[in-house]
Amino acid sequence: MTKAFKALYISQEEGKFKKEIKALNISDLPENDVLIRVSYSSLNYKDALSASGNKGVTRKFPHVPGIDAAGIVVKSSTKDFKEGDLVLVTGFDLGMNTWGGFGEYISVPSSWIVALPDGLSLLEAMRFGTAGLTAGLSVEKVITGGITPDQGEIIVSGATGGVGSMATAILSKLGFDVAAISGKNENDFLTSALGASQILKRDEFIEKYNSKPLSSSDFAAGIDNVGGPTLSGILKSVKQNGIVTCCGNVSSADLNTSVFPFILRGITLTGIDSAQASMALRKKVWQLLAKDWKPVHLDMMVQEIGLDELADKLEELLKGQAKGRYVLKHD
Prior knowledge:
By secondary structure, the protein is an alpha/beta fold.
């Protein structure tokens, strides 16, 4: 098939990385089971790293980032999907070393694809994206671990970021009170759009809950998205038999804590890896996000952008200046 399409193209020239909107051809894509015309993609911190030339995310350049995509099947060599199916792809190797959703077409294995659930549009799927799936996986761990709204507040870190904002909104929809940790000063977004019950200043939280090996038990569970001293403080502040999920390290990959939260309170710390989550678990969480877990103000949490704005928004993400989420709409 010969067809031109536009993409954010990252190339390396004399050790420097260049971003440009470039016309590519479907023949440039890898040979895989399914060819998808991408309608929407979402922006993630990992995309910002890839677009900046981070070799820990993307090893080979030139490259087209975009770890999320939602669109329409235009060609399939498998019985699992047919032309015209509405689908979404998040994680696996998409946008890392396989050209991703910042191009108008992707070619991927059928094993990476989720059929769009009833109750969810292509746009809504990318309003969630990897951040929403990761938040959903985190909430799923908390709920299946037996935590209920009557047991107290859930503390969520990085609450104005992609995963944190989605986790806050989902928990609020399910009737949980959420204590949102934020390092930003503009916090009306957290209460009005996301439904947080209280906002904790990040520096004050770290100082209060890291002064001792074990602090006061103030929260039923925690969803951490940043790592480092924030995660340590969450572990020390969760009640008996609480659950803490961990999915990020933007603050630090180090964890300095004592064993006391685990041996004196029975705290469970569980990691969330949305990129390699099983297909069965993905489908379960996407079904919940499409219906009972869909935030009331999902549309308010996301700003829609075009390809011409993409490079600037990736820089915002890289610098930690983003608020909420961005969705890329292809023409």
